[in-house]
Specification:
CATH class: Alpha Beta
Order of helices and strands: EHEEEHEHEHEHEHHEEEHEH
Number of helices: 9
Radius of gyration: 18 Å
Number of domains: 1
Largest sheet: 8 strands, parallel, barrel
Shape: globular
Number of strands: 12
CATH superfamily: Divalent-metal-dependent TIM barrel enzymes
Helix content: 40-55%
Distance between the termini: 17 Å
Strand content: 15-25%
Length: about 270
């Protein structure tokens, strides 16, 4: 397995600083969500795209993934496909092999309505795959939003017939009551990327607070052990979401101990 970090951890840094941090903090690569603190979108300027390319090439840093905000349940198929193609172009320019997608929202109500929505989303993935693959990029949908359950995501991927894989975000299936072994049994070889973070449930509430790795209840250590046992050889990415949660500690203090702990947990046991 290879360890990266998401630059969601450092919204105050320039893009170049987030690239340099790969070597400073001892990870193997960078997962890109931000450029100079702002979310990367299809509207990113040509000059910023070139700056990103130059920073990555000059450093020799590997890029694990480029994260998008695109949702596969989008009602505007044409816009989704157009935006996806632009994001795939940026991914190719920056050397990112994977585009992260969200599932988005499913309709409330009886199961047949949700099943129809999943089949439509799968059709969109089938249509999107060749657009991404033309740029050498693969697609993966995260356990997030209304697809936080690995069971729901597995259903979507089954309908999509191999057009996309899964980003296993360790927090959300846990929040849904799914155990790591269950998640990996459901997603299996479809796992193309893994997000690790830790969180603690607030007492008496169905709310969670993100915390430093090892201080919460998300079974990240167990997930990594199971991944090693399954010979997973992809990226595991520390997703420390300071961009969305500014109450979290600054990356200069928070990254190094979390990376050290993940390295310890990823060390093969004799």
């Amino acid at each position: 397995m290879h360890l990266s970090y998401s630059n969601l951890a450092c919204p105050e840094w320039t893009f170049e600083n987030s690239v340099e941090a790969v070597r400073t903090y001892g990870v193997d690569g960078l997962e890109i969500r931000l450029f100079d603190g702002d979310v990367v979108t299809p509207a990113l300027s040509v000059s910023s795209r070139r700056r990103g390319e130059q920073a990555i090439r000059h450093s020799g840093v590997k890029v694990a993934a480029l994260d998008t905000s695109l949702t596969v349940t989008s009602p505007d198929r044409e816009k989704f496909l157009a935006d996806l193609e632009v994001m795939a172009e940026i991914a190719e320019q920056w050397g990112a092999p994977l585009l992260r997608l969200f599932g988005g929202r499913l309709p409330p109500g009886p199961e047949p309505k949700r099943d129809i929505a999943l089949r439509k989303a799968a059709d969109l993935l089938v249509e999107a795959e060749p657009l991404a693959w033309a740029h050498g990029v693969r697609l993966a949908v995260e356990t997030h939003d209304d697809l936080s359950s690995a069971r729901t995501l597995a259903q979507l991927l089954g309908y999509a017939r191999g057009s996309a894989g899964a980003v296993y975000d360790t927090h959300h299936p846990h929040r849904m009551g799914e155990q790591p072994a269950e998640v990996l049994a459901l997603l299996g070889h479809n796992v193309r990327h893994v997000h690790v973070k830790d969180a603690a449930r607030l007492p008496g509430k169905d709310e969670w607070q993100l915390v430093m790795m090892g201080e919460g209840e998300v079974p990240v250590h167990e997930v990594l052990t199971l991944l090693m046992g399954a010979h997973y050889d992809g990226w595991v990415s520390l997703e420390y979401e300071r961009k969305w949660h500014p109450e979290l500690g600054r990356p200069e203090v928070a990254l190094r101990p979390q990376i050290a702990l993940l390295r310890e947990w990823m060390r093969p046991q004799p």
